[in-house]
Write a structure and sequence with these properties.
The longest helix is centred in the middle third of the chain and has 27 residues. The protein is an all-alpha fold. The mean pLDDT is about 90. The chain is rod-shaped. The chain starts with a helix and ends in a 5-residue tail after the last helix. The protein has one domain. The protein has one helix and no strands.
Length: about 35
């Protein structure tokens, strides 16, 4: 139960971090595709 919860939280965090990284990259380098 708890382990599954941790896995889900980790995956969600990793996804959000990926989204944030792409957003920041676009803000810093708007010319990049």
């Amino acid at each position: 139960e708890q382990l599954q919860r941790l896995k889900t939280e980790f995956q969600a965090n990793r996804y959000i971090t990926e989204q944030r990284r792409q957003s920041l990259a676009q803000e810093l380098n708007p010319d990049e595709p």
